[in-house]
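Um, can you check?
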Amino acid sequence: MKTNNPLSLYVHIPFCHNICGYCDFTKLIYNKKLADEYLLSLKKELCSLEIKHQLKTVYVGGGTPSSLEDEQFSFLLRMLRVHLAKDYEFTVECNPESLTKRKLEIMKECGVNRLSIGVESTDDNILKAIGRQHTFKMVKDVVREAKEMGMRNISLDLIIGLPHVSKEMLRKDIENLISLDVEHISCYSLTVHPNTKFYLDGIEEQDSSLAREYYDIVNEILENNGFIHYEVSNWSKPSFESKHNLVYWKDEQYYAIGLGASSYVHPYRRKNTMNMAKYLKGDYVSEEELVTDKDNKVYFIMLNLRTIHGLDLKKYQNLFNEDLLETKQKEIEELISSGLLKHENHLLIPTYEGMMLLDQAILKLIS
């Protein structure tokens, strides 16, 4: 039985100085007056949650949180730090061009201990073509400055499958990221969403077989350099997994505030409005799903099989009063024999092949 005591909070900052051609997140061009109003509304929503306990993880995403002006950035982080437990992970997403020395100082003052930096490519020509406003030199500079300021947990994002990026260029990208000596690297396949500039320009996603070849290159290089492939799109040095994102993947509960933010406080999964006018009036929630036991089983299987921590069969049985090994014996045996899953102790763990073909495994277990 789940208790309504989430220990994690996601905070969405929708502002950006520039809209990238592939981006489908809830975002809008930065405006100081609107950002001031938004932060006040964000504080009101946070207060409305009436959080009485301390949080283990807080994640500020976007948009581009570092697009805020220094005073706004400080207001935001100070508002959040009061909710942190003693042993916490406090992550802020940043873009290299807006991650100034002063912003790094503000983060240090406010207890931020993890940075997630949007790199996307290390080739300046590719960066320019996709509408990014930074160069790889800027990435190197901000990583160096962050380390000099004592930041010991830095994650870099890369997009796989961008137009005109060859396998050799991809290898160079990964080697460039590794050379920065960071603790975590996320690699996401390019997805072309309707109404984005990429979609309107007719840019297509990589063919699935080619995408798999690119992923294999990334995984091989990272694992050869001491990174653990702990989740479908994420690699980390030992003990540097994203604790906040593991909350999602373990199907645990979490608060979420801000435009378009999604939360899970049992028994409801909620999504906030994407309409700024409504949000500023305090009309926060636009969608609400009452999660049934059947839904819960699907979420539990679907999310837990994304990581090398696997699906805990004992926990599943305690939650749902069902022995999955018994009810899905044939399907599990097939998945193990086909090399997609491993059964170790009381865990069902995806292999690398299983992560790459995750939908197949999930469908067998939930249908």
Observations:
- The first strand starts at residue 8 and ends at 13.
- The radius of gyration is 21 Å.
- The domain at 296-367 is CATH 1.10.10 (Arc Repressor Mutant, subunit A).
- The chain has 16 helices and 17 strands.
